[in-house]
Amino acid sequence: MLRELRAAVDRRARLRWLHLLLGAALLMPFQLLTTSAVGVTGLADGDFRLETQLLAFALALPLVAAAGLLPVARSLEGAIARTLCGASEEVLATPADSWSARRRTSLWFTLHALLGGLTGAISLAAPPAGALLLLLPVLRPHTVGPGWAAPIAEHPWTAPPLGLALLALPVALAFPAGRRLARLAPRLLGPTPADRLAAAQRRADRMAERNRVARELHDSVGHALSAVGVQAAAAARLLRTDPDFAATALAAIEATARDAVTELDHVLGLLREEDDRTAPHTLADLPALLDRTRAAGAPVDYAEDGLRARTLPGTLSREAYRIVQEGLGNALKHAGDAPVHVRLTVRQETLEITMANPLRPPAGRRTRTGSGLTGLRERVALLRGTLDAGPDDAGQWLLTARLPLGSSA
């Protein structure tokens, strides 16, 4: 019992009482409108009689419900409920986009105005009346004029208990009303199934964007670092015995690092959601990539069939470049200076990318140390293509990607 009394007057209860009074303030314009309408139409006599105000109050609630259907109503009521009512974080302070959310907000707005109007009226009327009843025993009966207190003045000993009851009435009403509204807030102002679906779609979009940026970083910067490491090791090994090759490797390191910085600017532009100032690489940039790989010490045999006769969509050309880049990076990382065979073929509305290189003995298999193949599979899947990667019967690592020419959509 003592705990309930403390809860009824603690800070949260006071904020909820203020929340109810704010509901009364939101009701006031509608109440004034219906009061004027009742007076003009003659539905009741006198603007300030109790029956007039009750009728105007009843007529104002449908107007409140109609106003609650506005999308902005959830923004207003959600922010107020989270600040004053102590509602959970599930309460949304965003415009209601669907009719289901609007109907829920309308019901909440009506309840807020209804309970707020009752609480506000009692909070204004009950304390003065309670104070008068507490003072009634010390007042002379003839000082109390005709009205509601006149019958009580004839029995002054009943006035103090009634006065205390009137003083406690606002708390007795505001505490359960505020607690009930706080419990209803997540249900009426929280996300609807459509809101939850939209939130899940936004999360999926963010995850897809993060995966895309991760693939870009891995395929571009990761490839560049792998190539730089191999080139630097080759240059250090042959610096004394073959200065010309070492100079070529150092020049390739410079070109690779410069290209990596450009790629990094492109990816950072994606993260900042800026207009990309650096055009991403396409198959037109493939010769430079092959030259840098050759400079790292890995012989690259390149061939193409039917590629020049077709104009590839931009998206497909960019993704094909990334696939070749990742394949060359894996070859440098796992096979060193082993020769790499790259072939691009266009046939039957399909771009086929085939890459093969010998496996390094004695392992006979690739070591799975990164996420390159996973990123390649995701990239190819987005283009509705297929990817096969693994050792073949001839002891080579074979990577084959097949991309539909219409997959850029």
UniProtKB/TrEMBL annotation:
EC numbers: 2.7.13.3
UniProt keywords, alphabetically: ATP-binding, Kinase, Membrane, Nucleotide-binding, Phosphoprotein, Transferase, Transmembrane, Transmembrane helix, Two-component regulatory system
Gene3D superfamilies (UniProt xref): 1.20.5.1930, Histidine kinase-like ATPase, C-terminal domain
One Pfam family of this chain: HisKA_3
Record's catalysed reaction(s): ATP + protein L-histidine = ADP + protein N-phospho-L-histidine
Residue stretches spanning the membrane: 20-42, 54-73, 107-139, 159-178
A GO CC term assigned to this protein in UniProt: membrane
Domain of life: Bacteria
Gene Ontology molecular function: ATP binding; phosphorelay sensor kinase activity; protein dimerization activity
Domain Signal transduction histidine kinase subgroup 3 dimerisation and phosphoacceptor: 209-275
InterPro entries documented for this protein: HATPase_C_sf, Sensor_HK_TwoCompSys, Sig_transdc_His_kin_sub3_dim/P
The keyword Transferase is annotated on this UniProt entry: yes
PANTHER family for this protein: NITRATE/NITRITE SENSOR PROTEIN NARX-RELATED (PTHR24421), NITRATE_NITRITE SENSOR PROTEIN NARQ (PTHR24421:SF10)
Protein name as annotated: histidine kinase
